[in-house]
């Protein structure tokens, strides 16, 4: 596991809750397959109107982003992101453009940690650190693969609960 420094949040209001991410089941196994990976599913907890539900939704949203970059399938990411979410739509466009032109991403899955949430009724700001290993992107069928350096960012996903589900409203990098 990658050691990561503490997330420092400037301007958080009193009452910020720190939520631990749900634990993975000990019965989960990993295996290699030549079939394209199926889209991730959101946990039942991600449908709860609670701080824990907002965190579970954020974990599912990042899994949808990882799935999109690995397969080019942006349907789940698009369906869980508001059309007004500029950061969300930028990632959807970037991935769609690469795969449309015959390119692809290699590696670079995001791992999230240090999750904190500000929860207010039907809205939450979920702060987290995303870290990724070095990877490559081939931007089109005719291009050479380019390196993407390993790194990490402090991020915030604003989510809103409406009609029994969470939706990403804004996605941004925190200034450190």
Describe this structure in words.
By secondary structure, this protein is of the alpha+beta class. The protein has one domain: Roll (Nuclear Transport Factor 2, Chain: A), CATH 3.10.450.50. Helices cover about 25% and strands about 30% of the residues. It has 3 helices and 8 strands; from the N terminus they run E-H-H-H-E-E-E-E-E-E-E. Strand 7 and strand 8 form a beta hairpin. The protein is globular. The N terminus is likely disordered.
Strand order of the largest sheet: 1-3-4-7-8
Quaternary status of these chains? Answer: single chain
Estimated helix fraction: 10-25%
Distance between the termini: 23 Å
What's the overall geometry?
Answer: globular
SSE string, helix = H, strand = E? Answer: EHHHEEEEEEE
Strand content: 25-35%
Uncertain segments: 1-33
Count of distinct strands: 8
Mean pLDDT: 83
Q: By helix and strand content, what is the structural category?
A: alpha+beta
How many domains, in number, for the residues? 1
Total helical elements: 3
Radius of gyration of CA atoms, rounded to a whole number: 16 Å
CATH architecture heading: Roll
Q: What's the CATH class, please?
A: Alpha Beta
CATH topology: Nuclear Transport Factor 2, Chain: A
Major beta-sheet overview: 5 strands, antiparallel
